[in-house]
Amino acid sequence: MTVMQGYFIYNTFMLKQKQAQASVRVELIKMEDKININALRSELIRHMDQLTKTDQREKINDAVLLKTAEISKRIKDYISHNPVLSEYNTAYCVTVKYAKLTSSASAPPLIIKGKTWFGNGKELENPQIIHDMTSHVDGETSAFVKEFTTQSNFSINDWQRKIFGQMLGLLLFSVFVFCLLIFLFYFSIRSLIKQKKIADIQTDFINNITHEFNTPLATLGVAIRTIQEQAGPDENIAVDHAVHIAHRQHRRLKKLIDQVIIHASGPEDIVLKKEKTEMPAFLSQIVTDFQTVYPSIPLDITVGERKAELYIDPFHLTTAINNMLDNAVKYGARQINISDKVMENKYILTIEDNGIGIAGKDQEKIFDKFYRIEKGDIHNTKGLGLGLYYTKEIISAHEGEITVSSLSSKGSIFTIYLPLS
C-alpha cells in the first residue's frame, strides 16, 4: 500500500510539473506574439547587414544589444502581470544562438554564438526551449547576413516548492491514510494477540472445569451403582424409578462433559453417531425426563398417524430438543406442546409454547452464537446464548433445518425439518 501511494504521488508530481511547463510555454508564446519577436529579428538582421556593408563589423556585437533595455522592460512587465508566469516565478531569455556574416572583402566571415539578446533578467535554472528560429537569409533580405538563429528559453525557478505547495492537500491525505493503515495494522495485531489469549484461557478453563466435574461425576456414578446393586426386589417402585432416572441423567451429564472436551473448538466439528430410532418412543423419553425436572409445566405430545423411524444421533438430538424446552421455560412458558408428522419425504417436529414470545428483530439472530435477547428484566435469565446456536448446528448436521415463528407476548413455535432417508 505504501509503495502504491509513493508511486501515485510521484506520478502526480511529474504530471503537475508537465502541466506547469505546458501552461508557462503557452503564455510565453502569447507574449512573443504580442512583442512581435519576428519583427525584432528582422530589424536586427537589417541593422547587422547595414553595419557589415559600411565596414563597421566591430560594432556587430553592440548591435545585438539594440533596444535590449526597452524590450527587456516590456518582458519584465508582461511576466510580472501575467498570473501564470508570475505564479511560477518564470525566467525568460532570448539568445542569438548562431549568426554568420560575410563581407565583400576577403576577410573571413564573422561568427556570433550564444550572445544574450533580451529577457527578464532572471537566471535560467533548468532551461526549457520554447523554439529555435533559424533563417537562411536570401540576398534580397540581407547581402551579408547568411545565417541567423535565435533561441528562446524559459525555466520555472523554484518549481519543486511551488508544485509541492499545490500538492500539499494530497500529501497530507496520503500521510493520514498511511498513519491510519499503521494504526489499523497495530490494532489488528493487538486484537489477534488478545483473541489468542482468550482462546488459550477458554481452553484452559474447559480443561480445568471438565477435570473438576469428572471427579464428582465418577463418585456419583459409583453411588448410583451401589444403590442399584443393593436394592432388593421389594424396593419401593418410586425409589426405583428415581434411581433409574438419576442413573440415566448421570450418563447424560457424563456424555455432555465429554462433548465439551471433544467439541471445544465449535459445534461444526460434531461427528454424529446415527442409529435407527423410533420417534414416538424417542419423544416420550424426552417428555418423561422433562416432567421430572419441571413437574409444574404441562408438556403435551401429539404423535402423527404415521409413526416415523429416522436415522439420528439420539444423544445430540435430545440435547437440541432439550435446549428448546429449557428456553421455553426460562422465557415464561406455562404450557408446551410437541407434535410431529410426516409430510412427503420430511419429518416435521413442532414445539409450541405460550411464553413471552420473540420480537421480529430478534428472530433472525436467536440462532447466532452468544446472542441473547435483552429486554426488560430478561437479561437476568441465566445462559450464555449458546443453546439455540448449538441446536441449529445439530439440526444442520442431520441435514435438516429449523425455523421460528413468534409474536411478542404470544408465544413461539419452533419447527424442525428432518429428512426421512
Describe this structure in words.
The chain is α+β, with helices and mostly antiparallel strands. The protein contains twelve helices and eleven strands.
Count of helix runs: 12
Mean pLDDT rating:
81
CA radius of gyration: 49 Å
Low-pLDDT runs of 5+ residues are none
Number of domains: 3
Number of strands: 11
> What percentage of amino acids are in beta strands?
15-25%
Summing up helix and strand content along with how strands pair, one would put the structural category as: alpha+beta
Give the terminus-to-terminus CA distance: 53 Å
Give the ordered list of helices and strands.
HHHHHEEEEHHHEHEEHEEHHEE
Tertiary shape: rod-shaped
Q: Characterize the largest beta sheet: strand count, sense, and whether it forms a barrel.
A: 5 strands, mixed
What is the strand arrangement across the widest sheet?
Answer: 6-8-9-11-10
Q: What portion of residues is helical?
A: 40-55%
Topology:
Blueprint: H1 2-35, H2 37-53, H3 60-64, H4 68-81, H5 83-87, E1 90-101, E2 110-119, E3 128-136, E4 145-156, H6 159-166, H7 168-230, H8 237-262, E5 275-278, H9 279-293, E6 299-302, E7 309-312, H10 314-330, E8 336-343, E9 346-353, H11 360-363, H12 387-397, E10 401-407, E11 411-419
Parallel strand pairs: 6-8
Antiparallel strand pairs: 1-2, 1-4, 3-4, 5-7, 8-9, 9-11, 10-11
Helix pairs in contact: 1-6, 7-8, 10-12
